Input
Amino acid sequence: MKLQQLRYITEVASCGLNVSAAADRMHTSQSGVSKQILALEDELGVQIFVRNGKHISGLTAAGEVIVAQARELLHQAGNIKRTAAEFSDATSGSLSLATTHTQSRYVLPPVISQFIEKYPGVSLQLHQGTPIQIAELAAKGTADFAIATEAMEKFSDLMMMPCYRWNRVVLVPKDHALVGVSKISLADLARFPLVTYVLGFTGRSRLDDAFASQGLQPRVVFTAADADVIKTYVRLGMGIGIVAGMAYDSDKDTDLVALDASHLFDYSVTRIGFRRGTVLRAYMYEFIAMFADHLQRPVVEQVLQCQSQADVDLLFANTPIPALGIGQSAPVSSSQLPD
Output
């Protein structure tokens, strides 16, 4: 049994049982992948995949268990490599992040710039996707860290730590009727067509819950995963936009007015996390601290001792979570912003 064979079976499973796609992702041939999988099945004496002729159509009962065990073994093999690398050269390596457009566009740039300046020998990879995709990438070990607001609870192997809380703004053209309203209400917003995030993205659930709590049915006419796209369609007159506060840039969005909506919606919390049992290198601890100042290494080491997300949540139960204001790219103390 070889680690490469285990990589092949986990990759085929991850690619929806598509051997060709798995081969492409691993930069090898389809025939080579198939040959190694058959060799592994022969060695183990069981079939891992159900086949329909030459095509793989599913996982056998044994295959389900073997693929899960293979993922865990590959995760541990990665831990061994990280441990060895830390002792051989603590300033070089790689760091893979999985996050949303909002985080990568508005929050991460200054953090990444600071990190690269301190660790020029570390290669950074940034994966953008939906919250579900982000969680999957971290759970499978493709990404070292997941950074997101929603859907993380669906993956029990992830240990997610609170970084900062944030709320929303309503974006309208300068001549819009809402500009003259001193304190907008949900009923005000319900009068206009809305342009906002896709379901499952960037705290969208908080928005829906707020309208539902007052028996209002918002007219959402356009949704997108990208705040810049939302702003484009607000400019086209399609509707008023509701985006994360940090997505408003007062220097670049001079044609739009940002109306505070923090009194209308509950705060959302962005979290950073990793797969349970991961060995973190020194620069990984430092990246976390750069992203969220209250997550210094001793705190993260406590998280590594936790056995479940419930334990992590308990650890931070009495920790004040800093807030990110409108147009800010770095959190400030929660005492500096009103609730």
Summary: Residues 43 and 158 are 33 Å apart (CA to CA). Residues 61-88 form the longest helix (28 residues).
